[in-house]
Write a structure and sequence with these properties.
This protein is about 60% helix and about 5% strand. The chain is mainly alpha-helical and about 100 residues long. The chain has two domains: about 50 residues; about 45 residues, no CATH class.
């Protein structure tokens, strides 16, 4: 399948908006189910949490804690840049049809 103008515009907008989301949000806290899934897939016995009270209440199951992910700032800027380039390139392409 050949990518046309609409595909480039759609992909560019999605990447651009994801980049803005990464710049706007400081950290993401995963749910307990997602943390368990990652611990199982990455073969880790325990998952470190930022909340010390969670360790007190879940002493028997340390994998059930929530994990916090803090993406670096440069990821947001790079996604914004790539998305903007794709959007501008799509505007310069020939219309499909």
């Amino acid at each position: 399948m050949e990518l046309n103008r609409n595909h480039y515009l759609g992909i560019g907008m999605i990447v651009l908006l994801l980049g803005l989301q990464f710049r706007y949000v400081d950290s993401f806290q995963l749910t307990e189910d997602t943390t368990k899934f990652l611990a199982k897939r990455l073969k880790k016995e325990t998952v470190v949490t930022q909340n010390p009270l969670a360790a007190i209440f879940r002493q028997n199951n340390p994998v059930a804690m929530k994990k916090t992910i803090r993406p670096p700032k440069w990821i947001g800027w790079s996604m914004i840049s790539v998305g903007a380039v794709l959007v501008i390139q799509s505007l310069g392409m020939k219309k499909p049809g």
